[in-house]
Design goal:
heterodimer, A: mainly alpha, disordered N terminus, B: 87 residues, mainly alpha
């Protein structure tokens, strides 16, 4: 218990729970009696303790304040030694995120742990510690019960203070909730519910505190050997109440206010609704003896609401039974018991009354507060609603204006786009119109051309006819010209031929190379094979250079020299003709008869006479043929003449061929 | 032979040359006979006539040969073709 004190105090200082602190301080104030003899040492210890506590509080408080206030933090870290380290330590261990509930949970947890630890330690060392504890508890109760009204008052005040503090807390939360929405309202409701719960708790505590008063009327009754076992459970309820809280916190209760519909984080559970301590009826109440008036039945109606009173009544009954067992003391004790009984019933009644009053008052106050808070909540809700409505209105207005703006912007954009599109389309249309115009113009021009063509068709056809006629004329003219050319050529040929004839038939022998050349030139232009071959044979001979003997010359030559000499050798035999035969032929030929005309016979003189005849007929060809038949000496003598005659005949023949060809050409021309 | 002649004059030319040759060879014979008669035959006449005869005979032979060159002493030319009848 001693060792638990500093820890609980530390926790209580952090938690700030008035009631717990009160109980603890009451327990702590019980500690000085053993240390009372040394006054000076206690003073020093007190000073040391207070200074240490103040310093610790200062540091812890400063750390927490510095998390809230930046300026204070700077001041704290710069001016106070170890301030920087403390703040950093606090930040490292997340003190700044610490909530009051968490602190309470931690502190209660720690207290539980420490108490468990101490109990375990003490339980292993001494067995009679529970009884000792019970003794101390009862002693403390007797001490505290001496001023019940003051305790009641104090507890009332504490309840009030707690209520006020909670009220302020709720107010604060309400203020914060004003800015929030339904969530904040829910939180506030939750806090109100919690507040109700805590109020119930407070009521229970107040009842417990009230119950402590009747207990202190018991004088050392628990020391009776007959009642060692039931007393500890009897005295434990007020403690168990404390421990109950500890036990609840042991299960990782998420004590912080939860929004409606939210679950606590994993590993935590909702705070279980505060258990009503089951009213314990004293089983020993009916054990009262007959002779003495029993107190338990008298207070039995009270015992339903106040188990302690029934307990007390049972204790008194026990005392009465004890007195019954001791008849000597019974007489004396009867009055006392009667008064005690009256007193007890009175007390019980008063307590009941006070309790009822208190309850009524509390309930009234609670109702009032509930009404107030509900009103406030309603107000806040309405305000929030109004504000929300206003905000909604604003939003709507903003939305409308934005919508209008957007509509405007989009319309402008659309207009712009439409305009550009229209321009584009207009441009395209214009281009198309231009293209179509060009196309139509082209078509029109083509059509006009076609029309003009059709109109001109007749004239053009006439023109064509004229052109064809002209062409025909041209053809005719060309043909004519070609005919003319041909005629000219033939004429030229004829002229050349005539020149050749003139050259050949000239009275004197002369070369006709020039004439032959001209004739050949003309003939080559014609490219006639026959003329070419004839001219070729003429050119190859030497006749053109030397010319040909004229017929008159040939005839005179024949008659004057050739014919007499041939006739003189006419009788010469063809073989072995010597001088004598010649001389004889010469002499005898002078004695022969001259015959004229076409004489029959193949002898030399007949042939000669026929040749002479042909020569007279100007038939050189036949004469030459006749003379060519001669043989022997006559042929020898005729050799030169025959040569000249044959040349002339060749030329004449070629000329005749050319002449016939020219005649043919002239005939072809026409 | 210097001046060109026609073919009809061939026989006449041969006559002319034969006569000239006779004259030359008869004269040469006559001279040789004269000389031989004077020298050898104490002025007898017959050597003169004989030698002139020899001369004239040589000239005749030559003339005949000119008219018929194929006539060579000791040879005879026979015509093989019989188509030409003998006149």
């Amino acid at each position: 218990m001693y060792r638990a004190i500093p820890v609980t105090r530390h926790a209580s200082s952090a938690a700030g729970r008035g009631l717990v602190r009160a109980t603890r301080r009451r327990l702590a104030t019980t500690t000085p009696p053993p240390a009372a003899p040394k006054q000076s040492k206690s003073v020093v210890r007190k000073i040391l303790f207070y200074s240490v506590a103040a310093t610790g509080t200062f540091y812890a408080g400063s750390a927490f304040v510095s998390f809230e206030n930046q300026r204070y933090r700077e001041l704290f870290t710069e001016n106070v030694p170890l301030g920087q380290a403390l703040v950093e330590y606090g930040e490292a261990h997340k003190w700044d995120e610490l909530t009051i509930e968490q602190v309470v949970v931690y502190s209660v947890d720690t207290a539980k742990y420490v108490s468990d630890f101490v109990r375990r330690q003490l339980g292993t060392s001494t067995q009679d510690t529970p009884e000792q504890k019970d003794k101390e508890a009862t002693a403390e109760k007797t001490r505290t019960a001496k001023e019940p009204t003051s305790a009641m008052q104090a507890s009332k005040e504490r309840v009030k203070a707690a209520a006020a503090s909670l009220k302020t807390a709720v107010k604060k939360s309400e203020e914060t909730a004003v800015e929030g929405s339904a969530k904040a309202v829910a939180i506030a409701r939750h806090q109100a519910a919690e507040f109700n719960d805590s109020l119930d708790d407070l009521i229970r505590r107040a009842e417990a505190a009230l119950a402590g008063k009747p207990i202190d009327t018991l004088p050392e009754a628990t020391t009776t050997p007959s009642q060692p076992s039931p007393s500890p459970p009897d005295t434990t309820p007020p403690r168990a109440d404390d421990v109950d809280v500890v036990v609840v916190s042991d299960k990782n209760v998420y004590a912080a206010p939860l929004p409606i519909g939210f679950e606590p984080p994993p590993g935590f559970s909702r705070p279980s609704p505060p258990k009503k301590t089951p009213p314990k009826t004293a089983p020993n109440a009916e054990a009262a003896p007959e002779p003495l008036p029993l107190v338990a039945p008298a207070v039995s109606e009270l015992a339903v609401s106040e188990p302690v009173i029934s307990q007390l009544a049972s204790t008194i009954d026990n005392l009465a039974s004890y007195l019954n067992s001791n008849p000597t003391a019974a007489e004396k004790a009867k009055d006392v018991l009667a008064t005690a009984k009256i007193d007890l019933t009175e007390l019980a009644g008063r307590i009941e009354k006070i309790k009822e009053d208190e309850q009524q008052k509390l309930e009234q106050k609670l109702d009032e507060q509930t009404r107030e808070y509900s009103l406030k909540l309603l107000e806040v809700e309405m305000e929030a609603q109004d504000r929300l409505d206003g905000q909604e209105e604003d939003f709507r207005k903003f939305f409308d204006s934005e919508k209008a703006r957007f509509v405007q912007v989009y319309r402008e954009k659309l207009d712009q786009e439409l305009k550009t599109q229209t321009e584009l389309i207009n441009e395209r249309l214009k281009e198309e119109v231009i293209a179509q115009g060009i196309e139509m113009q082209r078509r029109w021009i083509r059509e006009v051309k076609v029309r003009v063509e059709q109109e001109r068709g007749g004239r053009l056809a006439k023109l064509d006819e004229l052109a064809s006629n002209l062409k025909r004329l041209e053809r005719l003219a060309l043909d004519n010209s070609s005919y003319l050319d041909e005629n000219i050529r033939v004429h030229g040929m004829w002229t050349a031929l005539r020149a050749m004839h003139a050259a050949i038939d000239a009275p004197v022998r002369k070369p006709f190379r020039e004439e032959l050349r001209i004739l050949r030139h003309i003939a080559v232009a014609k490219d006639d094979a026959i003329i070419s071959s004839a001219l070729e044979s003429l050119e190859q001979s030497d006749a053109p250079d030397v010319g040909v003997e004229p017929f008159a010359d040939l005839a005179s030559w024949f008659t004057t020299s050739v014919a007499p000499r041939v006739s003189s050798v006419a009788l010469v035999p063809d073989q072995n003709a010597g001088v004598l035969s010649h001389v004889a032929s010469h002499l005898l030929s002078s004695f022969r008869f001259q015959r004229r005309g076409l004489v029959q016979g193949s002898d030399v003189l007949s042939v000669l006479s026929r040749a002479e005849h042909f020569m007279d007929e100007k038939d050189l060809d036949s004469a030459a043929r006749e003379l060519n038949q001669l043989k022997g000496t006559a042929k020898e003598l005729l050799k030169d003449w025959l040569e000249a005659a044959r040349r002339r005949l060749e030329v004449q023949q070629a000329l005749e061929v050319i002449q016939s060809q020219a005649t043919l050409a002239s005939l072809l021309v026409v | 032979m210097s001046k060109p002649t026609s073919s009809e004059n061939i026989v006449s030319q041969k006559y002319d040359r034969c006569l000239a040759d006779l004259l030359v060879k008869a004269g040469v014979g006559f001279g040789v006979g004269v000389v031989a008669s004077v020298i050898l035959f104490r002025r007898r006449t017959w050597p003169v006539a004989l030698s002139t005869g020899f001369g004239m005979g040589a000239a005749y032979a030559d003339c005949d040969r000119s008219f018929n060159p194929a006539r060579v002493p000791g040879t005879r030319i026979v015509t093989q073709t019989g188509d030409v009848p003998q006149a």
